[in-house]
Specification:
Helix 18 links the parallel strand 12 and strand 13. It is built from 24 helices and 17 strands. By secondary structure, it is an alpha/beta fold. The longest helix is centred in the N-terminal third of the chain and has 18 residues. It has 4 domains: 150 residues, DNA polymerase, domain 1 (Orthogonal Bundle); 90 residues, Beta Polymerase, domain 2; 69 residues, DNA polymerase, thumb domain (Beta Polymerase, domain 3), CATH 3.30.210; 235 residues, TIM Barrel, CATH 3.20.20.140. Helix 1 runs antiparallel to helix 2, helix 13 crosses helix 15 and helix 22 packs across helix 23. It has a 7-stranded parallel beta sheet with strand order 11-12-13-14-15-16-17. A 5-stranded mixed beta sheet has the order 2-4-7-6-5, sandwiched between helices. The structure holds 2'-deoxyguanosine-5'-triphosphate, calcium ion (CA) (2 copies) and zinc ion. The site of zinc ion has 5 residues, from loops. The site of one calcium ion (CA) has 5 residues, from helix 11. GO terms for molecular function: class I DNA-(apurinic or apyrimidinic site) endonuclease activity; DNA binding; DNA-directed DNA polymerase activity; exonuclease activity; phosphoric ester hydrolase activity; zinc ion binding. Its main location: cytoplasm. InterPro entries: DNA-dir_DNA_pol_X, DNA_pol_lamdba_lyase_dom_sf, DNA_Pol_thumb_sf, DNA_pol_X_beta-like, HHH_MUS81, Hlx-hairpin-Hlx_DNA-bd_motif, NT_sf, PHP_dom.
Length: 577
């Protein structure tokens, strides 16, 4: 169940797309898009606001506020229904292809009468798109890729954050029931995979019935898929499956181990158990000969009997963690409490929705020792950044520094890596920042050579300390760019440039496997949120989970370091600063 703010955000975004596709006012479409983002990032639940309260949200005017009120009261908005009805359902289906914007979707419908994904596939194969203005072979390729992505997302996996929201609510509800000894989630969610197929919840209790009944009766349970004494499965109103298993309390550790997975990790453990004369199941570790139980209550005891230390769930992917554990070489993975600050964040000076003051005080509440503000630079033209604006912001940042306990503020920017690897400002201007993040935001379809050179050039700039969201992937929407990342990682190591692990649940970029690869080059990392609102700062947990899946330790992550060490990394003495 999305929060009301997110539901409203999705609805207004859809309206903006529909306005654009029906050839409506581009200004109006943009206004709805801005309002959608502002509401999505607004810290107060919109369901608690009236029309007047809504209008206090930036970019929300009277007419938008009225639509939101209508939605909150009736679950629908007549204006949205109207435009929906004016567009064939197939064209709306086209809009769900992640690589196809509203303009192109409309052109396909008007020029070629394409009104479904199937018809679009036919048109691509018949090469009918090539005759359309603004379409080329590259567009075809993108469209085909988009359709593949969409069909993959149709496999029903959801973003880690969406699954986490549901799981935490379910665990909260079930924990309150009398007789609940323990309750926790397991599966890919506990391993912090970037997407989750279904949610596995475990309860330790003597009787299972009250828990099964409670799950079936939750307000967001839409359908009961299977109902039994040991396991019940339901589907939520948002289409997410939740599997609940109730275990006897003495089997808690064995059950948690089994249902956390991964399957491949479990198989390795079972093989080890057999070699040690045991049998491992979700009920415990048993002596193979006598069938007598050895241990079952905690994961630690089971690992210990197999001669292993406890292995963090984020490492349980059969990527060598058992061999490392046997050698005593398991990494001590970075934890959220180790993070001393966030090095990539935005404010409403560009496309953020919270003010500088709001972002800074929310960061201070998180107990950070330092915090960097890195708004977009001028080459991302939509953001209208100027030298004057960023310098004025610097004054405000300096004035705020020290006002929040001991948290120190860094003034930075997120530069745009241009098609040639060029950056927004000359070096002497960059020298004025405490920190420069540099990221790719456009020209994703350049050749592999061009993309690689672009990223390597950015690394080579002495003022660039972090490469933001390095592959630019957006989960379920857009694949990462096709650069030679081995060359990029090598350049990062050589130039002392950190790679970002972007914590936004839609990005998680670098992903676990890329992190593992980059780490072999001796690269350092920065786990950042790229927050555009105070509500995004807590996304840090997802970045840290991803960093753990990439086997990163505190030492690998520059924003766990004390400020002085971080500053030396940002401004090494050899560089001309
Ligand atoms: P998901 O839901 O696709 O994101 O991935 P998981 O890992 O949560 O997989 P799921 O929900 O099918 O099963 C949860 C855990 O239960 C899985 O990680 C390991 C365990 N498990 C499930 N089926 C098997 C199996 O056939 N053999 C073994 N050893 N473990 C299994
Ligand atoms: Ca699962
Ligand atoms: Ca499952
Ligand atoms: Zn960016």
């Amino acid at each position: 169940m999305a929060r009301p703010n997110e539901e409203v955000e999705a609805l207004l975004q859809e309206y903006a797309d529909l306005v654009a596709i029906t050839g409506g006012d581009a200004f109006k479409a943009r206004a709805y898009e801005k309002a959608a983002r502002a509401i999505g990032g607004h810290p107060v639940d919109v369901a608690t606001l009236d029309a007047k309260g809504l209008q206090e949200i930036p970019n929300v005017g009277k007419s938008i506020a009225e639509k939101v009120v209508e939605f909150l009261r009736t679950g629908r908005v007549s204006a949205v229904e109207e435009v929906r009805a004016s567009i064939p359902a197939g064209v709306r289906e086209l809009l769900t292809i992640p690589t196809l914007g509203p303009k192109k979707a409309m052109a396909l419908y008007e020029e070629l009468r394409v009104s479904s994904v199937a018809e679009l596939l036919d048109a691509v194969h018949d090469r009918r798109l090539r005759d359309l203005k603004g379409f080329g072979p590259k567009t075809e390729e993108n469209i085909l890729h988009g359709i593949t992505l969409m069909q993959k997302a149709g496999g029903g996996r959801v973003l880690l954050s969406a699954a986490m929201d549901v799981a935490e609510q379910v665990v909260g509800e079930l924990s309150r029931i009398t007789g609940c000894d323990r309750c926790a989630y397991a599966g890919s969610l506990r391993r912090m995979r970037d997407t989750v197929g279904d949610i596995d919840v475990l309860v330790a209790a003597g009787r299972s019935e009250p828990f099964m009944k409670a799950l079936e009766g939750l307000p967001y349970t839409a359908e009961v898929i299977a109902s039994g004494e040991k396991k019940t499965s339901v589907r939520t109103t948002q289409g997410l499956q939740v599997d609940l298993r109730v275990l006897p309390p003495e089997s808690w550790g064995a059950g948690r181990l089994y249902f956390t997975g991964s399957k491949a990790h479990n198989i390795r453990l079972r093989e080890m158990a057999i070699r040690h004369g045991f049998k491992l199941s979700e009920y415990g570790l048993f002596h193979a000969k006598s069938g007598r139980k050895a241990v079952s209550e905690t994961e630690e005891e089971i690992y210990a009997k197999l001669g292993l230390p406890w292995i963090p769930p984020t490492l349980r992917e059969d990527r060598g963690e058992i061999a490392a554990a046997l050698k005593g070489e398991l990494p001590e993975v970075v934890e959220e409490k180790d993070i001393r600050g966030d090095l990539h964040t935005h404010t409403d000076l560009t496309d953020g929705v919270s003010t500088l003051e709001q972002m800074v005080s929310a960061a201070a509440e998180r107990g950070y020792a330092y915090y960097a503000i890195t708004d977009h630079a001028p080459n991302l033209y939509m953001q209208r950044m100027t030298d004057q604006k960023i310098l004025a912001q610097r004054e405000r940042v300096r004035a705020l520094d020290g006002k929040h306990r001991k948290m120190r503020l860094l003034h930075g920017t997120e530069l745009n890596i241009g098609p040639e690897g060029d950056l927004d400002w000359p070096d002497d201007f960059l020298a004025g920042f405490d920190l420069c993040v540099a990221s790719v935001h456009s020209h994703f379809n350049q050749s592999r050579e061009e993309l690689t050179r672009r990223l390597v050039r950015a690394c080579e700039n002495p003022y660039v300390s972090v490469i933001g969201h390095p592959t630019t992937r957006q989960i379920g929407k857009r694949p990462g760019i096709d650069a030679d990342f081995d060359a990029v990682f090598e350049a990062c190591a050589r130039t002392g440039t950190a790679l970002e692990v972007n914590s936004h649940p839609q990005r998680l970029d670098l992903c676990d496997e890329d992190i593992l690869r980059a780490k072999r080059y001796g690269v350092k990392f920065a786990v950042n949120t790229d927050a555009h609102s105070v509500t995004h700062l807590p996304y840090m947990r997802y970045g840290v989970g991803t960093a753990q899946r990439g086997w990163l330790t505190k030492d690998d992550v520059i924003n766990t370091w004390p400020l002085q060490r971080l500053k030396r990394f940002l401004r090494p003495p050899g560089r001309s600063r």
